[in-house]
Design brief:
Layout (H helix, E strand, L loop, with lengths): L5 H29 L2 H17 L10 H16 L23 H12 L3 H11 L5 H8 L3 H19 L3
Length: about 170
């Protein structure tokens, strides 16, 4: 008596492999929003639990990675009120500690970051703090990698310009 068909077993193996390959990038994605390892760990537990329960809802129109990032984003929004005041419409980057930035420049840095458009900010933090490669970020946004690189470089220039009074 066969419990699973060959297709079901193959699909399960493919999903396991995709989870394994995606996990580090999804973790980087979450960390880029919150810069808090304990919060990231909590969200990742929720992501894995939910993805396991909802695997049949995966529709194969996106990669497993993007699907997991969408779950992660939903889980962050749910858990957000535990970490951020309700009047804050951004995630957590205001609480970043900038040890290499002189105190007199730190306020300018935060002000220049706040002025940047949301998508550019996300790309910047995903790459710098989440350590996600441009190709992975491009996959998240469904845009060409060159668009992501340009957004990152423009954002970096705006931040540097804001700190240097430009």
């Amino acid at each position: 008596m066969q419990l699973f068909s060959a297709d079901e077993i193959q699909y399960e193996e493919i999903m396991d492999s995709a989870y394994e390959k995606s996990f580090k990038y999804v973790r980087g994605f979450v960390f880029s929003y919150c810069m808090d390892t304990s919060f990231t760990d909590k969200i990742m537990v929720n992501v894995v639990t939910r993805a396991t329960k909802e695997v049949e809802k995966y529709d194969k129109r996106t990669s497993v990675f993007v699907w997991l990032c969408n779950i992660a984003k939903e889980e962050m929004v749910k858990a957000r009120e535990d970490f951020v005041s309700p009047e804050d419409n951004e995630f957590f980057f205001y609480n970043i500690n900038f040890p290499s930035v002189p105190k007199e420049k730190e306020k300018q840095l935060i002000t220049s970051i706040k002025r940047i458009e949301k998508t550019q900010k996300e790309i910047f933090f995903m790459h710098t703090l989440g350590k996600l490669p441009f190709s992975i970020i491009a996959e998240i946004y469904g845009r060409p990698e060159v668009w992501v690189k340009n957004s990152y470089l423009i954002t970096k220039a705006k931040i540097i310009g804001g700190v240097n009074g430009g």
